[in-house]
Design goal:
230 residues, alpha/beta, nine-stranded mixed beta sheet, two-stranded antiparallel sheet
Length: 230
């Protein structure tokens, strides 16, 4: 049984290594991730040029493409061998309507379109937190991943996990299953170079009580089930 790991932060991102550590010993891993950061690329795919990829070792590939490309390439290179796909651990939250522009979530959505279940994992970070505790993030993710992959995979459904931003001394966090918050992001822009630069503050976005945004911002791990349609 093989599990594919990918992300949108790039092949050398520490969050990807943390994710590999979270499933170490439980699955045979394939890693296929963009060779550079591709955050915010949504579900874009490459069809107008060859997708180059470099084999770093036996089951680790650096791909000149998007996260969705990485999934497509891996499923092509290992036909019928990939049982699950994990994407992350993203440096920054993918909460609420973020799922529509997130490359991390798009990777899992692409997998689900091919009948392969998966989980997107992200770590919300505020501006005061300069570094992430990836060891702690891996510890938090490990039991959630095993629970979902062992008991809760469904066709046409993806799972979106968001870890909270907590002080270094907090080793545990409550896990809450919650719905996606569909509130729009703030429409705030600053004039710059005859154009507009987005200036909305992520931590001040709208939050519906009990939604994934509210749960994560309240210091809990938000676990959200997202059907592909309906």
């Amino acid at each position: 049984m093989k599990i594919l790991l990918t992300n949108d932060d790039g092949i050398d991102a520490p969050g990807l290594e943390a994710l590999a550590g979270a499933v170490n010993g439980s699955f045979e891993k394939i890693i296929a991730a963009p060779h550079i950061e591709r955050s915010g690329c949504s579900h874009s795919t490459t069809t107008d040029r060859p997708i180059q990829f470099q084999r770093r070792d036996a089951n680790r590939f650096s791909v000149d493409g998007t996260p969705a490309d990485c999934v497509r390439v891996a499923l092509h290179q290992f036909p019928g061998e990939v049982s699950y796909v994990l994407a992350g651990i993203n440096s920054g939250g993918n909460l609420g309507v973020d799922v529509y522009h997130s490359g991390t979530v798009a990777a899992i959505r692409e997998a689900a379109l091919h009948g392969v279940p998966g989980i997107a994992l992200s770590h919300y970070r505020n501006r005061q937190l300069t570094t992430a505790d990836w060891r702690r993030a891996a510890v938090w993710c490990a039991p959630i991943i095993l629970d979902i992959l062992s008991h809760r995979c469904e066709p046409g459904v993806i799972w979106n996990i968001n870890l909270p931003c907590l002080p270094p001394e907090r080793e545990t966090a409550d896990i809450v299953e919650c719905p996606l918050d569909l509130s729009p992001l703030p429409l705030e822009f600053l004039a710059e170079d005859a154009g507009l630069r987005y200036s909305g503050e992520y931590s001040k976005r709208a939050r519906i009580q009990g939604s994934d945004v509210d749960v994560c911002f309240s210091g809990k791990i938000a676990v959200t089930r997202i059907p592909l349609v309906g």
